[in-house]
Amino acid sequence: MVSRRRVFAVVNQKGGVGKTTTAANLAASFAASERATLLIDLDPQANASSAYGVKATTHIYDALIGRCVMKDVVVTTELRYLHLIPSGRDLYGAEVELISTPHRERRLDVALADLRDAYEIVIIDCPPSLGLLTLNALVAADAVVIPMQCEYYALEGLAGLMETIEAVRRELNQKLTVEGIVLTMADPRNTLSRQVEAEVRSHFGDRVFTAVIPRNVRLSEAPSHGKPILLYDIHSKGAVAYLHLAEEILMSMRPVTPGLGPPTVGSRRWPTSSQDPPSSQGQPGSQGQTELATPEQVNDR
Ligand SMILES: Nc1ncnc2c1ncn2[C@@H]1O[C@H](COP(=O)(O)OP(=O)(O)OP(=O)(O)O)[C@@H](O)[C@H]1O
Ligand SMILES: [Mg+2]
Fold it and tell me: Residue of the nearest CA to atom 25 in ligand 1?
């Protein structure tokens, strides 16, 4: 079954709510389902890049300012179906440098044009602000995934985020939708965590994903090993939760073109008309790429 291609921006201007953990592990979960997936690190902190053990000297900043094309900064990962566009500290300058450039809010959208068709799913990890970088993500995206930490101030700032999404839809990107809110770092034994989940669900109803990401120490350990949770501990509660979230999102993606085989990606073959492989700089796992079980094949425990 081939789904319609989708670009998801993982957005919340609050810091530390689980954006990167969600972007990095959702991307791995989609790749595990053999969906050609591209993870874009749009945060100068470059946490999504380090979550895959990638430290790149040339990265998204260079493509955004027009020093090179996006394809030149794509790297492969240990997962055959997952590619990554890394970030780095230079990107801090982009917020300022892009201000005086024409169509500054469309730089990512335009730069991605050549790559879109090569991937079934693109996931953009955004920085903790509603600045120009996040705006670029919202303009390039089809849908927004909002991670929300199960803590007392969870709803704080959400009104501002929803207004921003609405304004972008009105002025810049009519196709933009909210895919859903994902509750993160939930602890079912903690009363406050349960209350926050109930409150968010009563506010937002079916805009909240059924899958809830539990607080799970394995999720916080995985990035220091440069691996997504699926390659670090596939049986952990965190891995299972992200597989469920990916499944939920995939269910909402309607099939459009039956009959096409799964796209070939990874270092073996570049999935565009050109057969050039993507740049190999900084790639963590060009050797021995891992083929993973599908979500259905993973034990839930
Ligand atoms: N479900 C979880 N269980 C345990 N720890 C988690 C979980 N999700 C995230 N963390 C940890 O919480 C911290 C913040 O998570 P993360 O980096 O994903 O948030 P973020 O929203 O991307 O932060 P920033 O706004 O700085 O980009 C990290 O140390 C991460 O490992
Ligand atoms: Mg982050």
Answer: 15
